[in-house]
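User: Can you predict the 3D structure for this chain?
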Amino acid sequence: MTDTVKLDVGGTIFKTTKSTLTKFDGFFRTMFETPIPVPRDESGAIFIDRSPKHFDLILHFMRDGHVDLQKYSEDISEIQKEAEYYMLDGLVELCTPKLCIPKPVPREMPFFFSSDEDMARAISSSTKKIVCSVFYPKNQKDANFEDAVKNIMKYGQKIDFFFKEQEQTDRGLSHYTLFNKTNNKYFEAPSNSGSLDSLIKQAFPDIDNY
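Assistant: Here is the predicted structure, written as structure tokens:
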């Protein structure tokens, strides 16, 4: 089955389908629908650095859209943390009385990430229509990196900018990925193909109207 996906969650192997993993907005849909690199173990399974304890329940929720939490009453806080990590809002609501759901705390820009998983989660949770991911060479913030930072001042109200250091890039240069969350389309370009400002306008000609 080409739709089958193997996951290595904290050393435990799970099998499911891509359609199950992408059924709801969240961590896995972002992982599969954006060009963020997917970490894999030595067998080729997608590696998730989390405890496998409640992952069966996570999969049940993604399959059915509901789980009976009565028999997990002692583990609710743990399950809620896992639901928050995988960005499954429906499961978070099942774990938390509606009157006690805390309001999200706004974060300052820009965001720097050390793992592809964290960047994928950030893209999924972004409330902006456009996300710009900037990948730059390890231990090297070149002029193009600085160009990206400058664009935050111009487009910060319309675009979320995320930065991640890479062990190795194709030409030793920064490169950009612009992701349109409204239609799940993305535009990739090396930083030497032009200024980020011009690339944004090329990918989104009507950016001024956003």
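The chain is about 35% helix and 20% strand. Helices lie at 18-21, 27-33, 55-64, 76-85, 89-95, 116-125, 143-155, 196-203.
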